Amino acid sequence: MRLDILNRGYRPGTKVLFAVIRVFSGHPVPDAAKLVFYRPGFYGDRAKTFTHEAMRGPSAWSVADRELMAAFVSKVNESEFCISAHTATAGQAYQDGAKVQAVLTDLDSAPVEDGLRATLRMLGKLTREGTVSAGDMRDVLAAGVSRQQVEDALAVCAAFNTTDRLADAFGFELLSPEGFESGAKYLLKRGYR
Amino acid sequence: MPEEDKKRAAHRALVDRVLNVEGRTSAQQRAQAFGNASMPPPLGTLISKVATSPAQVTDADFAAAKAAGFTEDQLFELVIAAAVGQSARLYEAGLAALAEATGHGEGR
Predict the structure, then answer these.
(1) Do A77 and B101 count as a contact with CB atoms less than 8 A apart?
(2) Domain ranges of chain B
(3) What was the ipTM of the complex prediction?
(4) Which domain holds residue A179?
């Protein structure tokens, strides 16, 4: 990462934890996981709580749908680390990697329900342009998405617009495909806490 | 507490922490980064990229900010403030459009 403190500035107990994770998982600790251990009272503790609530808290959206939203928002932001991480996680969650790739390649023709497609389109516009209109929201609602689901999707969007920015600014190191799959397995088992 | 409020409450708690906890930068500096307020380069260049084009951030942006006297811990705080700030604006813009579309007030 671009700041040495994020590579080396951890407390001794945290360094031991990273070493244990490396041994048991067979992969280095991803930078996304490291970041939340650095001065957790500033960012990590509350970021984990919010992200976990958005991604794993109660919602009419499935975990797979929310991971797909995370991958999609990351694609709009061109955030390579997060695209890979959440493409892998959504693919495992759906047990259908091709569906995830189809959405990221061409949302209009991808084999997803109209409500999810409309929601992704709105999240993409919001992320790209910084704003959406009431008309854009009416399109999503008209596709059968509830008001609550829109709110839940906006929480996912907020969480990943933050994480994408930090991944690219701090320079998270890309993992091997196996590393991303291993991380995805962890995220589906344990979430973001 | 309804679940939707739990998500928003958790977000507000994050924003509050990043803006107000005692850190290595002043609350004013963090508020400026959060708001992507115009700040002189080189810090302003880095912060603006984090907010609007994060994939364009380079090693040189950090090197220039450090050369201008910012420590790594200060840059850690300001980059996070900028990222959380931009995301908060998107969240608010989305919720406001939703409220307008459904005729609900925002002050729930």
Answers:
(1) no
(2) 3-102
(3) 0.97
(4) 43-190
